[in-house]
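Encode chain A's predicted structure.
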Amino acid sequence: MHNRAIMGTGNRAYSCLNSPELDRLIFEFKTYGSSEVFWHLVRKFAKGGLRDFALAKMRKAYAEHDRRVINFLKNLEISGLENYVKDLYFERTGEVLDLKSPQNFNQKIQWLKIHDNQEIKCKLSDKFAVREWIKDKIGEKYLIKLFKVWDSADEINFDGLPDKFFLCPNHASGSNLIVNNKNLINLKDVQREAAYWLSFVYGVVGYEPQYFDIPRKILAEEFIQQSDGDLLDYKIHCFNSEPKIIQIIGGRDLKTHTAHEAFFAPDWTRNDLMYHTYEQYDKDNEPKRPANFDEILDISRELSKGFKYVRVDLYNLDGNIKFGEMTFTPACGFSKWASEQSSKTAGDFIEIN
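Encoded structure for chain A:
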């Protein structure tokens, strides 16, 4: 109800971007708002004449809102947290969550959020901190080259960087920027985009606690691609340290957010045991088994040791394997599955007590 009220009163403010009206919206957001309301307001204000002023105020309000939500969740007892996740799960999926006897993949991911929130998951979800762990586990050669790290958007500069590089925050997913030529891009625009990334705590909306305490940074990494211009993303779904589902994504278009994907068993037979994110490769155009696939599986086994479930993301640059990230709660455990049986089969791979 409050969210609808904010959306309604907000429209009147967009035509008179004055400080008192903005302050009132900020107050309502801090009291009742959600991240969806926040970004709706940001998009609206970005079209007006007070973009930077409005964004600065909204970022501050959003940060305060996040801190309040996180502190609330951290102080909940297990029973209260279970009720919170049950309500959230029903809101996002329309399904009732039984945490005493979870059955499918999504349900067991919710159980793991509450009962298997190991401290190490925070470090491994941090794209900067995980690098040290990867170096110790499998070696530095598997790391993508890191050029620079910044703690704030204002610190970003292009000095010493190659013309082309990859920019991303260390604490979130889906936020990135490919700089094709640093001499043709406006530094202020990049800083503004980076400030946008740093303005929210990833994981609050879907309750992914491994992201809550990541110190937020901006990373400048080497831009990587295969010799054919593509970049296949090997997402290895591991259960009790054993790869079971190999998800391969290729042909990404970051502007249209499209791609193709296929799912395989470890023996490279096609299966369909995971939710779909993109259009599926047809049989004639599906990715071929790489010559170093056994090494990909071995790396996944090593990195997934000690976890009931984790997705290990790797790249394969013409035979040179590079680490991408570790994901413990894909899509927050709210994904829509084409087949309930597939969700149940994948869920059976997660062994819980």
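Residues 145-221 form one domain.
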